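Translate sequence into structure tokens.
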Amino acid sequence: MDKQRQDGRTALQIRNVIWERDVLLAPQGSVRVTQGKTTVFAAVHGPKKQTNPSSFDKCCVQVSIKHFSSVELKHVEYRVKHVAESIIAHESIPGTSLNLSIQIMDDDGSALSVCLNAMCFAFLDACIPIKSLVSCVAVARVDSTLFADPSLYEQQTIAHGNMTAAFVSNHRSPENAKPIFVSTEGKWTREQYESSLQAGKELSLLVRMSMRQAVVPKSS
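Result follows.
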């Protein structure tokens, strides 16, 4: 039987996701993603030609992430930058750079997964060429039960292990999504790792579908 969680969700139920586009005027793309009580802003500036390009055949991505509590997030910036540079179609915008600014306004758990989803959504809003969509889900292991999209209380207080997994897929075969990024905390057996990754993959398809439905053509 599913464990009932503090907020009333079943074990593998993710919180409702609200996708908002064009929330700021200046950037090329700006979005707000709210998942439960976790809220993230993401803005894209660029791409623009590099004056002294470090690489002529790719787009250089600079990532800045700020948290409302001013905690250090360099490790999160590195992870988001890695995924961002992995999905960009560099051959379409070579010798350019873009800045991705992310602001975590409210954090009630699964913040890294929300940041990665906001990154992809912001790229879509800014019409940045990407090779595939990325959708991300966090999973917490509580005893032998997996909790999808854990709250901050679940992640920090009762979880024995936390996983954040991002998957890439194309529109023709989303069911064949493959992991592009996996981060874990705590101790995991191989079986626990694989079952959590499989749960994350299945749930990422729901996130992907929700994101695609939120992307409508901008009016000219």
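Note: The two ends are 51 Å apart (CA to CA).
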